[in-house]
Amino acid sequence: MLAQLTRETVAAEQPVLTAHGLTMWGYIVLSALDQSAIRTQATLAESIGADKTRIIPVLDALQNRGYIERIPDPDDRRARLLEITESGRSIKNATQADIQRGEEHWLAQLSAGDREVFLRVLQQLTFG
Amino acid sequence: MLAQLTRETVAAEQPVLTAHGLTMWGYIVLSALDQSAIRTQATLAESIGADKTRIIPVLDALQNRGYIERIPDPDDRRARLLEITESGRSIKNATQADIQRGEEHWLAQLSAGDREVFLRVLQQLTFG
DNA sequence: TATTGTTATACTCTATAACTATA
DNA sequence: TATAGTTATAGAGTATAACAATA
User: For tag attachment on chain A, is the N or C end more exposed, with fewer CB atoms within 10 Å?
Assistant: First the structure.
């Protein structure tokens, strides 16, 4: 059920992401960096459940468009401090607003109580 | 969150499926056919969110092991009635029991109420 | 001509291994 | 020697298109 629901929601979000010029992984990265800057790319990759090699083209694209910065750590010049920019935050917020509008299509079927529990449990199972 | 949780649960189920000699899609097909026989392969594919070409090797493997039957429909010899066998049902049940044991690892964190709501809503969003 | 099932092929996504630079 | 990041390559998973049989 999880897999099928995921496929459906991903398919539904795709046009929204495309309209904002973002890929799924690009959006996930911006959302992760929106909460706090991250010191290494490997840490970011692990925190979003991706391979470290897989996010490199994603970071390249985001950086080229000025949505993130990759700042070499002065204390360890191998590592890159990853930070979202103002421009990155604003496109992330705009995209998120559109996506949440789309999610209403699903969530509207639920009672307020069911909806609260479902979202809270989903968060708990994913991050807890 | 859905995508990440799906990846984690799929990864956790993989060893169980392998132990029973089933693939993820093989297990999904058996679960679908366990509820009722299905008249065409395309219908089955759509109902489980797969491509009709993608399930053919899956059906071949299941049939070779005697877990399903593909009976040509006498009224329309293009179509194949898909049915689970006794042997297919028993391996599906055994696998399902093991998987549910593994899911307890996740669900045990939840209160009885949260758990009931989450599973019910998940089902509703997926199939409703 | 349209549909069911099938096969072959191409494409996308992902992971593995090898490389550079820093430590 | 080990680690962060990168690149190139191979592998799995998936979708597209063309085919045979039947309607």
Answer: C
> How much is the pLDDT for B1?
86
Say whether pLDDT at A23 is over 80.
Answer: yes
Task: Specify the DSSP class assigned to residue B55.
Answer: T
Burial of A19 (0-12, 13-18, 19+ CB in 10 A): exposed
Strand partners, B73: B76
Examine the pLDDT at A128 and tell me if it is beyond 80: no
Which domains are seen in chain A, by residue range?
Answer: 2-127 (1.10.10.10)
Tell whether A11 is within 8 A of chain B (Cβ): no
Residues of B in contact with A122 (CB under 8 A): 1-2, 5, 118
Quote the strand ranges of A5-127, DSSP E.
Answer: 68-73, 76-84
Mean pLDDT of chain B: 94
Would you say the C-alpha torsion A44, A49, A52, A55 has a positive or negative sign? negative
Question: pLDDT, tens digit, for every residue of B15-66?
Answer: 999 999 999 999 999 999 999 999 999 999 999 989 999 999 999 999 999 9
Q: Tell me the angle at which helices B24-35 and B86-107 cross, rounded to the nearest 10 degrees.
A: 110
Radius of gyration over alpha carbons of chain B, in Å? 16
- Structure token pair of residue A110: 């639920």
Dmax (CA) for chain B in angstroms is 52
Question: DSSP 3-state assignment of B91?
Answer: helix
Identify the CA nearest to B5 among candidates B114, B127, B128, B122: B122
Confidence of residue A11 (pLDDT cuts 50, 70, 90): confident
User: Chain A contact for B112, CB < 8 A?
Assistant: no
